[in-house]
Amino acid sequence: MRRLLIGYDIGSSSVKATLLDADSGRVVGSKALPKVEMPIDAPKKDWAEQDPEMWWKYVVDATQALVKEGDIKPGELKAIGISYQMHGLVCVDKYNKVLRPAIIWCDSRAVGIGNKAFRSLGAEFCLPHLLNSPGNFTASKLKWVQENEPEIYQKIHKIMLPGDYIALKLTGVTMTSETGLSEGIFWDFQKNSLSKDLLDHYKFERSLIPDVVPSFSQQGKVSAASASLLGIDVGVPVTYRAGDQPNNAFSLKVLKEGELATTAGTSGTVYGVSTRAVYDPKSRVNTFVHVNHRRQAPSYGVLLCVNGTGILNSWLKRLIGGDSIGYEDMNALAAEVPVGSDGLSFIPFGNGVERIMENKPVGAHLSGLNLLKHDKRHLLRAGQEGIVAALTYGFQIMKDMGMNLNTVKAGHANMFLSPLFREAFVNMNEVTLELYDTDGSQGAARGAGIGAGIYANEEEAFQSLSRISTLEPNAKKTNQYQEVYAQWVAALEKVKG
Predict the structure, then answer these.
(1) Cβ neighbours of residue 69 under 8 Å, at least 6 residues apart?
(2) How far is CA 425 from CA 292, 417, 475, 488, 489, in A?
(3) Model-level pTM?
(4) What is the 8-class DSSP label of residue 294?
(5) pLDDT-above-70 percentage for the chain
(6) Which of 83, 233, 340, 399 is buried deepest, with most CB atoms within 10 A?
């Protein structure tokens, strides 16, 4: 009998599910839904919301497809793992019904609340205890609900992150994790517990926070109702959960000091691991608990995030051709113009406020546009170069924190499918890039295997991880891309004023 694992990756653009054979490490099946990107609602400027029931619908649809295509027999499915979009807020009542749309990661409404809390609590408390400003994270979003929707706040039984909600739908049990609470800025790193100071400051009841479980652990079993809906056995355990960026790092086996992972989906990230609780004094990059953190062996993830990444590329796709043009066609067009896009710079900060910009509303901008010279090819190339430049800007912050940024791992997916994007990333940042055949849903499945005890350790779980290629910087190209970066920074300074 096969030993199968399912990993879910609950994104803001799609839900992906992967069925993994635990013994061979082979992907039995994979499904990403919907075929077009999930909608993000923006009822007001700088808002971003999604219906959690939409995520659950696509989990159900993807699982049903995997059960059929993978021909899963009774008793074969051994464990489930969940990865999810970070920093979101889901509120449920005592009947586990959703009270309002989820306020997701790129929503900016709580920036002022978090900044005020940072001033009131003081940097001397927030930075060593929370490792971050309360900023625009989950706790501040909950405070916004308390202040602006008091009738909803009074009905809240539990709050949770998006992955906690999917686990609730699977098992009927409300739980969260230490990693999740740290990304929501609820965790006191010095006391290794919920931050009473933050709860008191925001006037939150402790009862709103679910019980805390380790990332790798028994976290409930699939209920009869959900098993019938999904087409799987009753009692399959959920044994892993983590935010998408810690999980993406885990998917690439980034677990030790100095190791780095990067992604370029809707948002773009670089995630580095440290055994020290380091922090940026301006909270432009953020430190959370990593998936393998233990009190006797600390492990922290330092996250650089650029909201305006793949979303800029998809915006350009809609602008230029919509369904009539594919991303490969866009990459080919962009490659027709030289490095530097003939002087055109794209500032990509058009998807909510950016942490590396200290949560200031910089916005997206084109700089150096020449109507006699530039066409859609230049727009496409400048878009990719601008995204890489924004990541490079964050890289400099991480370097100033003393982090080692020499080799970066990425899955062969999203914008890293573009040869131009890879070239710009490697040479602008002067790093070695290793590409792997994996993604977040595969990582969640491997995490489930560890949590269920099927794998003895990470080494065993990642025996089948396949590296596709390694890209090294080229001295000539590095010089060219350094000039592009200098041009981009000059454009940014003009925008910032």
Answers:
(1) 29, 31
(2) 28, 12, 14, 14, 16
(3) 0.91
(4) B
(5) 100
(6) 83
